[in-house]
Specification:
The protein is of the alpha/beta class and 338 residues long. It has 10 helices and 15 strands. It has a domain of 225 residues: 3-Layer(aba) Sandwich (Rossmann fold), CATH 3.40.50.720. α4 packs parallel to α5. The model has no long low-confidence stretch (mean pLDDT 98). Bound molecules: NADP nicotinamide-adenine-dinucleotide phosphate and ligand F7E.
């Protein structure tokens, strides 16, 4: 049988790393797009670079011509769009840029598919941030969107335009609505990676303090390795559709800190309230404090996903629990420090 050909936008990011691994193991030819950068952008995916089924091309989803050229040249069977300005907090500082990449960039890929080959299957990396300030205690595919950031708002456009192209041009175009997923490959300025990296260093005496923002937001955190399996399954269905991918469990940032500290055998006690809230270690030294710098102009207070549809149709459910996730991320930090 002819090898399937995947084209991944956003291959150099966290999910790009895990999706590449999954597809190479399934005998795909994997093509990925990297952007020009002043530093090496392929650090995460270094181990695949010598694989004979792995190919990297320059491109950018804000450059329509580069997308069209790549789609024509590579002739993919499946396109995965993981590319985004993916930091919610940063999207308040770069709203137009975020909209260009996260919304218009997606439309450019859909246009390239429409103009080239309607048989190409398309996956769009949607997000629980689209639910934003929701009144539903648990969110599924029927929950209304009420995004609270330029990031979430741009992703809502991407979600709807993907559906529009599916319906108008009969494209196999599907949306994942993925809740937070983490891993050792997570970007440094997301809260899980920041907490684990800092507390690991603090436990070894290599860092004095961790400064965080809102400790009381709740998130539903899974493992990226599990979530890319769902992404792949979404494109293997008979019909295109949209799926919530989540664990169904939520924790506050403070609970995440406590779980990490426990696994590191770091004894901490919380004191104070609001911006004066701190955590002290066994010697009474302040090792965690709160700063307004990390607060956002708008916050998404809680997110918890209902993946019943994915469980039924995709036969997917998250396997790695939060303690296993944190353990793996701690071990990775320890190895990088050794
Ligand atoms: P990530 O680590 O930040 O990776 C984002 C990727 O997009 C990187 O490869 C980045 O390239 C690339 N990119 C950014 N702008 C681009 C552009 N203009 N043209 C081409 N590529 C561009 O994000 P992730 O955690 O892997 O997430 C993957 C996707 O899922 C994103 O769309 C994100 O918004 C979405 N999502 C993530 C989560 C989550 O919890 N992780 C949840 C829901 C949805 P550089 O390496 O050059 O920066
Ligand atoms: O923040 C709070 C912050 O930046 C989580 C992206 O992958 O998942 C991610 O977006 C929570 C927020 O992720 C700090 O206010 C407190 O409530 O790790 P985060 P996110 O905003 O949930 C969604 C599903 C995506 O789609 C996105 O691409 O943690 N928080 N203190 C902090 N957050 C950060 N980053 N840094 C802090 O110091």
């Amino acid at each position: 049988m002819k090898k399937k050909i995947a084209l991944i936008f956003g291959i150099t990011g966290q999910d790009g790393y895990y999706l590449s691994d999954l597809l190479l193991n399934k005998n795909y030819k994997v093509h990925g797009v990297k952007r020009r950068s002043s530093s090496v952008p392929t650090k995460r995916i270094e181990k695949y670079l010598n694989n004979k089924n792995f190919f990297i091309h320059y491109g950018d989803i804000t450059d329509t011509s580069s997308i069209q050229n790549l789609v024509e040249k590579i002739k993919p069977t499946e396109i995965y769009n993981l590319a985004a300005q993916s930091h919610v907090g940063v999207s308040f500082f770069t709203p137009l840029y975020t909209a260009n990449v996260n919304a218009i960039g997606v439309l450019s890929i859909l246009e390239a598919i429409k103009n080239t080959n309607h048989k190409i299957k398309f996956y769009q990396a949607g997000t629980s941030e689209m639910f934003g300030k929701t009144i539903s205690k648990i969110q599924n595919e029927n929950t209304n969107f009420n995004p609270q950031s330029p990031y979430g708002t741009a992703k809502v456009f991407a979600h709807h335009i993907t559906k529009n192209y599916r319906d108008a041009y009969n494209l196999f175009a599907s949306n994942g609505i993925l809740f937070n997923h983490e891993s050792p490959m997570r970007g440094e300025n997301f809260v899980t990676k920041k907490i684990i990296s800092s507390l690991t260093k603090i436990s070894l005496g290599l860092q004095k303090k961790l400064i965080l923002g809102n400790l009381y937001a709740k998130r539903d955190w899974g493992h990226a390795k599990d979530y890319v399996e769902a992404i792949h399954k979404i494109l293997q269905q008979k019909k295109p559709d949209d799926y919530v991918i989540s664990t169904g469990k939520e924790y506050t940032i403070k609970e995440f800190v406590n779980m990490t500290a426990k696994l590191l055998k770091l004894k901490i006690k919380w004191r104070g309230k609001g911006l004066k809230e701190i955590a002290i270690d066994a010697n009474g030294k302040t090792i965690i404090s709160v700063s307004k710098v990390y607060y956002r102009p708008l916050e998404v207070d809680y997110l918890k996903g209902d993946s019943a549809k994915a469980k039924k149709n995709l036969k997917w459910q998250s396997k790695i629990n939060i303690n296993e996730l944190i353990r793996e991320m701690i071990d990775f930090e320890l190895q990088s420090l050794a």
